[in-house]
Predict the 3D structure of the following.
Amino acid sequence: MSSARIAPERLIPSPNEGAVRSPRSRSRNSFRQSICVFSLIFSDVLSIAIALRVGIFLRAHLVPRVDFHISPATLPFSHYLDNVWLWLFFLIFLGVEGLYTQRRTLWNEVAHLAKAVTLALTAVFAATSLAQWESDVSRTTIVLTAAILLIVLPTTRYWTKRGLRAAGFWRKRILILGATDTARLAMHGLASDPVLGYEIAGVLDDDPMTKGKYVGTWGNKPVFVLDNLASASEQMNLTGARDILIAMPDLEERKLLPLVHDLQHACESIYVVPQLWGLPMMNLRVDGFLRERLMMLKLSNNLAKPWNNWLKRLFDIVLGTMSGLLVLPLCLVVAVLIKIDSGGPILFVQERLGYKDKVFRCFKFRTMCLNGDEMLIRHLALNPDAADEWHKYAKLRAHDPRLTRIGRFLRLWSLDELPQLWNVLKGDMSLVGPRPYLPQERTRIGMELPTILSSRPGMTGFWQVNGRNQLTLEDRVQLEAWYIRNWTIWFDCIILAKTFKAVLFAWTTQSPARSGPIPTSTRKPQET
């Protein structure tokens, strides 16, 4: 068993070795930090130049085609180079947001990049207006440049950090305290995020039976328990770790506080995983009383606020309308293919649970045979494994005999759900939200039913981009309830981006199966 593996002695350096390497390690760390900062600044300057070039091109060739009253003549690239102070605003706000000094997860960094670009754009307009330099810049070009930066900056920074990481510069060693299940989850998160750049140096735990034991992997390298918690400072010197992650949710406060105070002076950052599993985290705010040294965690239910519901609805209408116009020709082609392939109706209409327990008619392209119920009953009766899978997952993940030829293709690429854009525009659904459940699935949703029904069901959702066919129905419900409690408009943007990626690589990430209740011979065909 992997849990029984013991760390080779050579993986645990001797104290003398660590004492010799420590000064050199600090010097190398400073050099690496400098290389990373200068590389990121160079990457950002290059991104601004690329975005400006594209912005000028669009201002000269695209904008006049949209508005014939605007002249195609615009200020050249060299003019903006002479006014280099304009672009210093972008670099300054990138620095203010800590984008040269702090390590953040991928989507957290994208959010801070968007904030920095927005603030810089505001500062540029304010500066040009106050100094009366409006004639020296094209406002349209500046806006286009900022919009393009929202795409170019995350892309160039992502590949810059990947390159720095491959070269060994964007790597930072971290020690994990606690050989717990939480620690293993943290290790997985650290290893899977492409921009954090953490290298797990080892794990410390007070259980003497765990010393030297294998606890997981970072990349292709095994991670072992090195020693107990009391040796944390020593192990930081030995391994070159500069950050600590305390993944011991059950550790008592009387032990946690002295541990943090003892290590804080020697660490650049300390991460603490609290015993708050499952609480909303994207709407979490830290507050407190300074005099009493009391910390408070504020949890906001964003979807309970009317203005946030209005914002989400406006987001659905604008993006749903644009998407509908773009995919309308594709929908016409799909409709013709369905008719040619199997005849029968083009659309499948089914009642689903909606917002505030309102039942609505959900539209999809038909992907199943007209006698799908009978086919499924026979298939489940002849295949006990398939029956167990259906009961557990409420879907057939590998092979569903009800699907037509064109239906398998539509399911694979999620094209069968395009008619739900009409549900979105009507207000029955949202672009992002929980799955639209069937009325007879109420009992299986259980205690999370009020939470699920507090949001409009979505065309896509958090569970679709986090496990999809590998999750049981109960697991899906938990993920969707967590999404609702953590909702932000930025969270919706992340899910839409992940959905686009999942659909784009659908042939490698999913099977065409879908879910639904076990039908009876008296029901209409169930397409879910």
